[in-house]
Amino acid sequence: MGKIKVIKNRIYSDFIIQPRLDEYESVIKQFVEHGYIQTTLREYKKLLDNNRLENKRYFVNRHDIDTDVETAKEFFKIEKTYGVKASYYFRLSTLDFDFMKEIEEYGSEASYHFEEIAQFAKNNHIKSKSELLKRMDEIKEIFKQNFTMIENRSGVKLETVCSHRDFVNRKLQITNNEITKDLNLRKELGILCETYDKDVMDSFNIYVSDRPYPIFYYPKPIFEYIGDKNIICMLSHPRQWRKNIFINLFDNLKRLYEGIKW
Questions:
Q1: CA-to-CA distance for 220 and 215, rounded, in angstroms?
Q2: Is 207 exposed, middle or buried (0-12, 13-18, 19+ CB in 10 A)?
Q3: Which of 28, 170, 236, 244 has the fewest CB atoms in 10 Å of its CB?
Q4: Which domains does the chain have, with CATH numbers?
């Protein structure tokens, strides 16, 4: 796809496209109608670890709240209407402690979408993967501080965490979940899993992620798998389901500024 077309699609997706929340509700409704247990990653992981997955259909519904908490709240309203659960992962920039408490009180999951490696690289103008790896002890300490702060301020025990993917990660070819490869750190903090752990990902019959216009889903539309696959995980981001002009503009400008400064 040419650069001009990519830019046009991004502009349309961020500032023009009509909301797709009715489509999200249709996703939830169809999973209900096909008898899927719609659950959090936390509860699914516990079932998986204890060999308690029954011969039933499971839908693990995961939201990465990169931006736009207000649209995440719309997801939550829809899920409550149908009495189903999901997992919400918040970046430091999208933390909403009252909303996190509400999610947990309902029975869904609110946790941390972490990016300490990418942020450390940006803050310290590091452009080498090897240099980052040398400073992993510092980065892990920052992760521990952020993780503990979120638990303390939200009153929520964080049991699963999710790595965010930043442009720095792509440039340096290092993922933020390099942090959670440290099993001692996981044990210390009581982390059951990171969302991309191999045992979790391998347990799904299919993993579907949303995508910007005009693709919407990858590898194929979620509707093609409902009723066909028994264990489905879907990753969604508020940005792909409802435009928020001011938040998207701010995020785009922030990304541009960070790239120049780094």
A1: 9
A2: buried
A3: 170
A4: 3-261 (3.20.20)
Structure-derived torsion over alpha carbons of residues 78, 159, 38, 228, reported in degrees to the nearest 10: 130
Place of tokens 């109608």: 33
Strands 231-236 and 58-65: parallel
Half-sphere exposure at residue 201, Cβ-oriented, CA atoms within 13 angstroms: 9
Token pair of 201 as six digits: 């990902």
Hey, which residues does 39 pair with through a beta bridge?
60
How many CA atoms does the CB half-sphere of 151 hold within 13 Å? 14
Both tokens assigned to 83: 């009495």
Q: How do residues 242-261 score in pLDDT, each as one tens digit?
A: 999 999 999 999 999 999 99
CB 58 within 8 A of CB 11: no
What pLDDT score was predicted for residue 133? 97
Q: What tokens does 161 get?
A: 């965490």
